[in-house]
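Quick one: co-fold with pyridoxal-5'-phosphate.
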Amino acid sequence: MESSTLNDVLHHLENVARAHARPCPRLLAVSKQQPAAAVEALARAGQRAFGENYVQEALAKQEALAGAGLALEWHLIGHLQSNKAREAARHFDWVQSVDRAKLVAALARYRPAELGPLNVLVQVNIDDEASKQGCAPQMLAGLVQAIEAEPMLRLRGLMAIPAPLEDMAQRRAAFARMHELFKQYRVGRDDFDTLSMGMSHDYPLAIEEGASMVRVGTALFGRRA
Ligand SMILES: *Cc1c(COP(=O)(O)O)cnc(C)c1O
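Sure, here it is.
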């Protein structure tokens, strides 16, 4: 991992945002299937927020880097099984894949008080894919209410992984629908500041449509093993 790659991606985010009069999004470096050494190299180049899909894989990297003196922010972006909620609540700063009430209760219950509230995003199944995780848009209001009833959770916004459609107009439409939901729910919520969408192949489109955080793996680290 070359720090020049990080700078290239950061410049690209800035340029795309400026070109479309959008605020520059935060970069989440998706380090799944990458070794701890790759995380460390990117962290030394200035990257702070890292995303992982699997709890166990993330814990192994956190342990490997524990003595490195890096102040990292860990985001869980993969589907979370309820029986992993305890570990997730203890070892992540953010969980972006909250999609059901049972998970809300488990994360709140297991978040250690000394760590303060866990930042959470609700993952929305914006393309209504049968096979996909994420809460249906019609269920969002109930889930938001459940999260807001938990003092140990801090609702920061929404996350989506739109269907990988070839048709760019359809992809754009999914991002735009997410932005509409985000604006709707942001009203009256001071902490609701994050719309997480866009990956290596489609983040320019996501930024154009209002993403405030993009999750980039391959474009930063190269192909996964
Ligand atoms: C793997 C993954 C990413 C990053 O994907 P790239 O195509 O490598 O940028 C982003 N978000 C989620 C939820 C992922 O699983």
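If it helps, The chain is about 40% helix and 15% strand.
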